[in-house]
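CHAIN AND CONFORMATION:
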Amino acid sequence: MKRGAMMTRPTIQDLADAAGVSIATANRVIGGRANVRQSTMQRVKDAAQDIGFYGLGTIDSRIAAAKPKHRFGFVLHQPSRQFYLNLAQALQAAAARTPDCIIDIRIEFLEDLSPQNTAARMLALAETCDAIGVVAAVHPIVNQAVEALQLQGKPVFALISQIAPTGQVHFVGLDGWKVGRTAAWMFEHVCKQPGKLGVLMGNPRYRCQEMNESGFRSYFREYASDFTILEPRSTFESKAVAEEMTENLLREHPDLQGLYVAGGGISGALAALRTTGNAGTVMLVGYELMDVTREALLDGTMTFVISHPLARLAEEALSGMVRALKVKGGDGNFTSVLPFEIYTRENI
């Protein structure tokens, strides 16, 4: 029954009829009483909007008040790194889109990435949060903090990089083995001839980076053994160190064919290639589509970017946390391995 067809103000009976519920149920929705399913409340709201029911604002308020409320905390890396700012924005946007509950997001960026500080901030954030998401290296101190939170019934989700074998700690991220092998395929098919390839890793304690490098090497052993893969160099997630390591590689190996940035430090590698005049001549594959890598694709300094689908990662993390809370510390495994995105200058 549409609003224009009615001669008088719609009644509770009209609302109940339009929603297909009893008058008692319609009254419970308007009155904000418990024991009404979210789907039923939404149906009553839709009917109220359709017939022009005078209490639409009240129903909206009742639905919002009845939604479960959660507070989720996230421990991310330095705010100076655009990827983590982008991830934080994706988490906030996903929380705002969540239809069935109200999610309050608390995000803490760490300048000090030591396991001691990471563990301390996880525990502190968990004092006011229902679940914790963290980007962290594998370390006994971090694992100890995870176990303490699990004993408290607070789910912990590793983002981007696993911090324990699958099933022990929930995980949302990429399959590092496939990522590394895909990067290797890129070098084999784009390099004009076999040669030396350098590898930069942020920190080998990050399981994702270790798997990236392992998959990378395995591909060349299987399909392209005439390439020489140099020993990886650690950037410690620092732009300055990555720039220095790249300059050292170029100086020690003037015939370097390509560079694979398997972890943090892409902005430093880009700076070194440009200042040494090697931009566009040394093939570069690295991670995450953001301002600095977008520019590098466009000017030819980078050939490929492999990227996390941030919107989906955020949605999977939040939905996993909600589901983990529902099982109240049960045996559910909420690991989600996502498909990765590949960018060139032709598809950005």
Notes: The chain has three domains: 3-66, 69-174+310-340, 176-307. The CA atoms of residues 27 and 268 lie 63 Å apart. The longest strand covers residues 69-76.
